[in-house]
Amino acid sequence: MVSEYTLDHAKQMDENDTLKGFREEFYLKQDSIYMDGNSLGLLSKRAERTLLESLEDWKEHGIDGWTQGNHPWFFMAEKLGAKMSQLVGASAEEVIVTGSTTVNLHQLVATFYKPEGMRTKILADELTFPTDIYALQSQLRTHGYDPKPISSA
């Protein structure tokens, strides 16, 4: 066993970690490790504050919360898109953040799926989220096709 792979070494690395302060920004049970990053992550204290501010905006402004308040709803897609743009190598005005992956997939397929002749299939694999499969099946049904899976065997 390599001597550096010890509990003491791991604790020292944790102590020297420049990102360790971020742990305090989340609600995390004492002495626990949370490793589910693909679904519902931990609630951050900033997200909680922002959500509470948005609720206050709703309470105070009602429908005018779309354009007034601390975080006007109407502009959120563009504001978040600008923050995400560097991740995808785009300029701020080229990206928006909307809906869930499944809702976005449904909208994209509804817009661009134009079956014609032999080009009627939509391919997905067994790793595709079930809700995404439901969205794809819905689009096939809308166009009069049977969404029954075709076996790869």
| Beta strand % | under 5%
Instruction: Tell me the overall shape.
Output: extended
Structural class of the helices, strands and pairings?
mainly alpha
Report Rg.
23 Å
Determine the number of helices (DSSP H or I, runs of at least 4 residues).
5
Helical proportion, percent range: 25-40%
Mean of pLDDT: 90
What does the main sheet amount to?
A: none
Provide a quick synopsis of the model:
With about 150 residues, the protein is an all-alpha fold. The chain is about 40% helix and about 0% strand.
What are the SSEs and their pairings?
Elements: H1 7-16, H2 45-61, H3 76-84, H4 101-112, H5 130-142
Helix pairs in contact: 4-5
What can you tell me about this protein's structure?
This protein is mainly α and 153 residues long. Among the domains are: 52-94, no CATH class; 101-142, no CATH class. It contains five helices and no strands. It has helices spanning 7-16, 45-61, 76-84, 101-112, 130-142. The mean pLDDT is 90.
Please tag this protein with its features:
5 helices, mainly alpha, 40% helix
